[in-house]
Design goal:
This protein has 226 residues and is α/β, with parallel strands linked by helices. Helix content is 48%, strand content 17%. The protein is built from nine helices and eight strands. The chain has a five-stranded parallel beta sheet. A three-stranded antiparallel beta sheet has the order 3-4-5, with no helix packed on it. The longest helix has 17 residues. The structure holds 2'-deoxycytidine-5'-monophosphate. 2'-deoxycytidine-5'-monophosphate binds next to α2, α4 and α8.
Length: 226
């Protein structure tokens, strides 16, 4: 598999800061961004809306193959449209995240989304954010980061993020959900969440976002990637 554009993969559990950090780096470098979690969330949301059972692998894989999705930028703000409907906020809801984690454990769904994810790799470069970017989707990526943070810290960050979107949730409930989702993402048979052998691990529990961005940009520069 040879690709012309450089790829930076950023994997890790939910709430470690991957989304924000990937977006910032992509913007600063002018590279494309793949939010692979959004594709699993979109598949889950489409299924929930159409009444497809969340364990019906065949129907869900069809759903994933035929997802009518547009990643748009409107007035500088990223927007995600599903069948023309703006679902940017809807896919971030807890219920959709939990359904996405179940859908993501089904091998036919992962297969259906594989090529769609690889198609995001275009010049001048790609920042790919997810769980298996460095292990499965872009194993040849020249720089792979694995971002972590303690479950408690991630629950706090998630609560803040939900509040900003007008949703409230108890910290203890969020912590339980995060632990359950970690377990499901790490223990699934296909493409489990784990660092690639050549990934660089960064624990962000004690780091703020600019510090993490700076570390990753230093690593990119050291490898002559940016
Ligand atoms: O990163 P996120 O919370 O938006 O991801 C939603 C779910 O999708 C998460 O539970 C794990 C799954 N996922 C995955 O299995 N593989 C990816 N590359 C990205 C996300």
């Amino acid at each position: 598999m040879s690709r012309t554009a450089p790829i930076l993969t950023i994997d890790g559990p939910g709430g470690a800061g991957k989304g924000t950090i990937s977006r910032m780096i992509a913007e600063r470098l002018g590279w494309h961004l793949l939010d692979s979690g959004a594709l699993y969330r979109l598949t889950a949301l489409a299924a929930l809306r159409k009444g497809v059972a969340i364990d019906d692998a065949e129907a869900l894989s069809k759903q994933a193959q035929t997802l009518d999705v547009v990643f748009a930028v409107d007035d500088g703000t990223a927007r995600i449209l599903l069948e023309g409907d703006d679902v940017t906020a809807a896919i971030r809801r807890e219920a959709v995240g939990n359904a996405a984690s179940q859908v993501a454990a089904l091998p036919p769904v992962r297969d259906a989304l594989l090529q769609r994810q690889r198609d995001f790799c275009r010049s001048p470069g790609l920042v790919a954010d997810g769980r298996d970017m460095g292990t499965v989707v872009f194993p040849e990526a020249p720089l792979k980061i694995y971002l972590t943070a303690s479950a408690e810290e991630r629950a706090k960050r998630r609560q803040l993020q939900l509040r900003q979107g007008g949703e409230d949730a108890r910290l203890s409930t969020l912590l339980e959900e995060i632990q359950a989702r970690d377990a499901r993402d790490m223990q699934r048979a296909v493409a489990p969440l784990k660092p690639a052998e050549d990934a660089i691990e960064l624990d962000t529990t004690q780091l703020d976002i600019p510090e993490v961005v700076e570390r990753i940009e230093t690593l990119l520069a050291e490898r002559n990637l940016a």
